[in-house]
Structures are given as structure tokens and as C-alpha cells.
Design a protein that fits this description.
CATH class: Alpha Beta
Structural class: alpha+beta
Number of domains: 1
Number of strands: 6
Largest sheet: 6 strands, mixed
Order of helices and strands: EHEHEEEHEH
CATH architecture: Roll
Strand order of the largest sheet: 2-5-4-3-1-6
Helix content: 10-25%
Distance between the termini: 24 Å
Radius of gyration: 15 Å
Strand content: 25-35%
CATH superfamily: ph1033 like domains
Length: 154
DNA sequence: GCCAACGTTGGC
DNA sequence: GCCAACGTTGGC
């Protein structure tokens, strides 16, 4: 099993939005970064657990956990001219971008702020904490995932 | 709102 | 294929 972290701006889509969805699941569309896409397309598997991160939030924080419930398939928002993530180079015949389905699993009783995570020794290598890290879909080590769960349920 | 750190684009 | 210009991300 693999572990991941996805970023979202809560103003546009928050963990509460996910929890409110029918069946508590949604398609994770709109990813337009090749590295992030490749992680979703090549390595994300049903059952993988995903840390849910609120960026551009106050404070920016890991706020809960979701689970992959469907593996990568074409992202139709890429060929929707009215969508803010429209990409003229993608088409139904030749889709360039993919999405996965995520299902809500839990919301932490208290968010784990970016600042608080920076002081955790076991997380020093985390991609999220790297200066200038912008990847919106990123792998998380098992030990890191477990450390964060432990912090969240303390 | 600023701006540093990235990623992408496109001329050459 | 280099790299300058530009656009975006995201913490602060």
C-alpha cells in the first residue's frame, strides 16, 4: 500500500466538502502538473491512504485522511472550455490529464499545522516541508503517515 | 498583497 | 536544447 498527500485550497474545496459528498466521495479533477499526474496515473492504487492538506489556509494544515477508491481515468474538465482547468491540448480521443476518486475517511479533531509539523523530527524528509515544494499530489513515506496519524489522535 | 521558488513556453 | 520571459503556487 502507498501513502500520499493531496493539497487543496479549502476556499475552493475543503475536507468538509468531501465529507458532505454523496457516498463521501469525489473525483479529484483539475490536477495540471505532470509530476502529480504521473503519481496518480502510475502509482495510486485502490486502498491507498491520502493525507488531506489545506493550502492557502489559516493555518495551512493537514486536516484529515481520505482513501483512493478508483484508479486513474481521464479528467473531462480538461476538454471543457468553460472549466478553469481547460487545456486545449487534451481531448476525449487523446486525454492528457487524469483523476482518481477519493473517499472521505476521517477529519482530525484538530488540524496539524504546517508550522507544527516542521518541528517534528520524524518528518524532516517530508516533501511537504521542503522549501518551495509545490507538488499538489505527492508521495508520503509509511513512517511519515503513521507519525502524522499518531500526532492527530493524541 | 508580496514575492521566492518553481514549472512551462517559445524564440533562437 | 538552451534559457529568458512569463505564469503559478502557496507561505507569510
Amino acid at each position: 500500500m502507498n501513502y500520499w498527500l493531496v493539497k487543496t485550497e479549502p476556499e475552493s474545496y475543503s475536507i468538509d466538502d468531501l465529507a458532505r459528498e454523496k457516498n463521501k466521495r469525489t473525483c479529484w479533477d483539475g490536477v495540471r502538473n505532470y509530476q502529480a499526474r504521473n503519481f496518480m496515473r502510475d502509482d495510486m492504487r485502490v486502498g491507498d491512504l491520502v493525507l488531506f492538506y489545506h493550502s492557502n489556509a489559516n493555518p495551512p494544515a493537514v486536516v484529515g485522511v481520505a482513501q483512493v477508491v478508483r484508479e486513474a481515468y481521464p479528467d473531462p474538465t480538461a476538454w471543457d472550455e468553460d472549466d478553469s482547468h481547460f487545456d486545449p491540448k487534451s481531448s476525449p480521443e487523446n486525454p492528457r490529464w487524469v483523476m482518481v476518486d477519493l473517499q472521505f475517511q476521517q477529519k482530525f479533531s484538530a488540524p496539524l499545522s504546517l508550522q507544527s509539523l516542521r518541528s517534528v523530527k520524524a518528518l524532516q524528509q517530508m516533501e511537504l516541508l521542503r522549501i518551495g515544494s509545490r507538488l499538489s499530489v505527492q508521495p508520503v513515506r509509511k513512517s511519515e503517515f503513521e507519525t502524522i496519524l499518531r500526532l492527530a489522535t493524541k
